[in-house]
Amino acid sequence: MPADDAAKIYTFYSYKGGVGRSMAMANVAELLYRSGLRVLMIDFDLEAPGLEQYFYKNDDPELQKVLCKRGVIDLLFSYKSLRSLRDSSPLAATISAPPEDPGPPPEDDEQSPPAKFPYPVEPLSSFVTKVYPAHPNMPGELSIITAGRRAKEERRLESREKQTKDEFALYADRVRSFAWDDFYLNLDGERFFDWFHQEAVKDIDIVLIDSRTGVAEMSGVCTYQLADVVVMFLAPNNQNVDGIKRIADSLTSPDLISQGRKGRKLSLIFVPSRVDLTAEKHKLDDLSARFRQVADKFISPDLNFEINSFVDLRIPYIPYYSFVEEVAVRDAKSPVAIELTKVYKKICRSFAQLDPKVSAKIRPESEPVDDLNLAEQQNRIADQVYEQLTPDKQQVARMLFTRLVRLAQIDAGEVKDSPKNVKLDDLNYQQRGVAQKFSAQGLLVIGEDGTEHKTVGLAAESLIDNWILFTSWINEDREFLIWRQNIQSASLNWEKNGRPDSELLADSRIPEARKWLDLRPDELSGNEAKYLYASFAIGGQKLKLRRLQVAGVILGIIITSFVIYYAYQQNRQLNILEARARQLFSNSQTLVVYQPELSLLLAIEAGRLASASVEARQALKTMLMQTSAQTVIHVGAPVYSARYSHDGKRFVTGSGGGISVAQIWEPGGNNSWQNLTTLRGHLGDVRRAAFSPDDRFIATASYDATAIIWNVAKGEMLGGPTDPRPGSFTDIDWSPKGILVATSAQDNKVYVWDALSQKLFQTLNLFTDNVNCVAFSPDGRFLAAGSRDSQVRVWNTKTWTEATILLKGPLKGHADEVLSVSFSPDSRFLITAGRDFTARIWDTYRWQTVKVLMGHTNAITRASFSPDGKFVVTASDDASAMVWETATGNRVAVLRGLPGSINDASFSPDGKMVLLAGSDGTARLWDLHPQVNPNLSMPELLALACARATRNMTVEEWRLYMGSEPYHATCPDILQPMPTPSASQATQPFAVPAK
């Protein structure tokens, strides 16, 4: 029997799959590790492996290394091979047979040690991979034994994909061919797993096993034989509840405990999972009663709960985590992740009630975060921010952080490094940008120093010790950093005392200063460099005075002194201008999203102030790239729809907010768009406006329960459906030939109309709730619609019967209402999007999901394909649009240009632009490939910026950002400053004619 202080094995088991068992185990393992425990995870789910996916991204090279490592199935085959070699050896006859079962242990208190396993077997440590190795600041350790090797090291002539495919096929063959009966009958399988248990708990604090589901050999090994505690997951349905009850009955059988487990105690913990907390109260009460009827009979008497086992440990159903392998406890910002973390912490605390090793590390909920947790958290967050930086910005981060620490002077008896603040103005443009990124994550603090200056400093002194990378930078550069620290102190005193020559470097220290200036010129501030150059100059003068004793030398010294003084004055003025320019660039960067025109004007003014600076040139070029990416069209009311004409020469918007019009826009001068025609006639919000295939007509759908067809050339209403509809129209689309128009409505129906006569052609009535969207396929074969009841239905336009015969009903997959449907240009795919924060790409041959696009943090209002079908753009209520690669589902761009919800997004016909419709009253055009010639000089960049500017600053804007400097036109060719509009002028509604 294992010793009382030995690590316990916790088996995570479920009777059915899909209950979130593996995700819960990964999150619990992460929390236990953060608490300072040495944790070993074992993936015994051989038929569905993949526990390691929670800890590595798909493109992480470390994942490939983990998949190359041998695991559980490889250990089993290794043992079989070694047994085969042993038994077939000529010496086999001379080797004694394994000892018989020694019988029950002696009755005295002292237990005999376990018998040594008599057969050859590889050490279990050969199959362990460190996920998070131990570190002095983080004694916890997280390791994994995977299900088995599913990839191999790359070879020169084989691609990684081929090798992974071949190795996975070999893995699958091993799992299918493994004979469990033979393993137990002829290869002492029971004793092997006794040995496995003894080895797994060595030098470890807790072992977590991800078990196979159902009633199978592997699940029996994991629960009956290996486990000290079985954590049983069950979803809220009868199959799960009944299945778990039967398994619990079996596990607690007295015969199993006394004979099969040789008296070893087995505890049970029951975890209800995928619980819909939004369900009606009586349903949750019924579910709780069913759960407790099963759990309370078997649950360990050592467990205590705040309320009861169901309420304390229930895991809520979060759709997002059904699609991704992510460790939720790493996300400290998402509300749903925070809720999941609370539950996983309660599961850890239930472990602590059963296990002294866990209890010693897991603190009660009321206790504050300990230093160990803080150290691990600070290290991880800092690493994450650092890893997101480009290599050159990572070097900038290193230079920034090493300025924020005062190194201990050992010679003076100091023993501990300490934080220090630096002025924001003393940092260059790149360092300020990096500082903002770390400040956003709470690692740095940017604040006032009591004067007019802003400072940057560490958010907590503990970061010096806790961020391992930071500590390594300090140790590696300590000699240089202490020298620079002394130079910085000397330069500050020199400036403070009026720059006397007596405080410059002594001649003996000049060589060392020249060495560091040559080796690390970029890591000295302007004041430090001035101090050194002044020291070099004075030192050179002293040398000349000793060598030259003629009167001409005196004149030379005077001239040199004048030059130095003049240089000081020039540098001082230059520093003031550069500091002002940096401030303007910072303001420009802040405004680029919401006020791109003003952002560009501020960047121009900053570029002129620091025109000689390479840094300023790069900053202006960056701003040009960002501001050229978007063109803002002020519509004046919330825009629900924005769509290009098929020839790309115009686009049409549909608005609400009291205006309720459609507007046609065409290019104006100077990179702007002008309103060509306003289509008035609706009395409610215009939810969709779309050009006909030949661009001669526009169809609009409105919440006033009408749809209208307009003549584009004349801007006149041709008519609309004549029959009154009981519900508002939500969407409208043309058939490929322009013969039919389909509308979706809030009366649970889809209506198909004859576009010429506006007569009703078909009524499609299969939904149980509001229909939100509708779309024809480009080949004309299908019509798709999505509704509030989370369903997508597709009709065959020849028979007007459902096309999804294979599924015998609607397309199901969204967890909330569907807001958008759209086909790819070749009709090969359908994309749907909805309020569950996801978009789904469906194969129209098999009507199955092929990609799920996740990344938005709010409802996806629209999803559309690019003209070549290679990309998808999604719009969301989270104030962003995202561009995705269709084939891979990878996100390739995030467009953040509107301060509120984005209601529509579509590509231009050439695929180079994305058109967005915003609730802030604007439509915006995003250039996906903005270009700025990298070889342009500063005057050329300034000229280009002015050519793109659409206005000058208003007087109010000038006073706000330029202070007391006299007003002038930033771009003189734009003659007048743009007046500041009043609020009433900005939102003046159009008149709606009476019918």
Shape: flat
| Main sheet: strand order | 3-4-2-5-1-6-7
Strand content: 15-25%
Tally of helical runs: 27
Secondary structure class reads alpha+beta
**Low-pLDDT stretches:** 89-113, 366-372, 976-995
Number of strands: 40
Mean pLDDT: 80
Distance between the termini: 90 Å
Helix coverage percent of residues? Answer: 25-40%
Radius of gyration: 36 Å
**Strand count, sense and closure of the main sheet?**
7 strands, mixed
Key attributes of the depicted protein:
995 residues, single chain, seven-stranded mixed β-sheet, alpha+beta, four-stranded antiparallel β-sheet
Structure description:
This protein is α+β, with helices and mostly antiparallel strands. The chain is built from 27 helices and 40 strands. The strands form ten sheets. A seven-stranded mixed sheet has the order 3-4-2-5-1-6-7, sandwiched between helices. Strand 3 and strand 4 form a beta hairpin. It is flat.
Short précis:
The chain is an alpha+beta fold and 995 residues long. The chain has 27 helices and 40 strands. Helix 22 (551-591) packs parallel to helix 24.
What's the helix and strand layout?
Blueprint: E1 8-14, H1 21-34, E2 38-43, H2 61-67, H3 72-88, E3 129-132, E4 141-145, H4 160-177, H5 180-186, H6 189-200, E5 206-210, H7 217-226, E6 229-234, H8 238-251, H9 254-260, E7 267-272, H10 281-298, H11 309-313, H12 335-354, H13 356-359, H14 371-387, H15 391-401, E8 405-406, E9 418-419, E10 422-423, H16 429-440, E11 444-448, E12 454-458, H17 463-466, H18 468-476, H19 478-496, H20 510-519, H21 526-547, H22 551-591, H23 596-609, H24 614-628, E13 630-634, E14 639-644, E15 651-655, E16 661-667, E17 673-680, E18 686-691, E19 697-702, E20 707-711, E21 716-719, E22 729-734, E23 740-745, E24 750-754, E25 760-764, E26 771-776, E27 782-787, E28 792-796, E29 801-802, E30 818-823, E31 829-834, E32 838-843, E33 848-854, E34 860-865, E35 871-876, E36 881-885, E37 891-895, E38 902-907, E39 913-918, E40 922-927, H25 938-948, H26 955-962, H27 983-986
Parallel strand pairs: 1-5, 1-6, 2-4, 2-5, 6-7
Antiparallel strand pairs: 3-4, 8-9, 10-12, 11-12, 13-40, 14-15, 15-16, 16-17, 18-19, 19-20, 20-21, 22-23, 23-24, 24-25, 26-27, 27-28, 28-29, 30-31, 31-32, 32-33, 34-35, 35-36, 36-37, 38-39, 39-40
Helix pairs in contact: 1-12, 8-10, 15-16, 19-21, 20-21, 21-22, 22-23, 22-24, 23-24, 23-25, 24-25
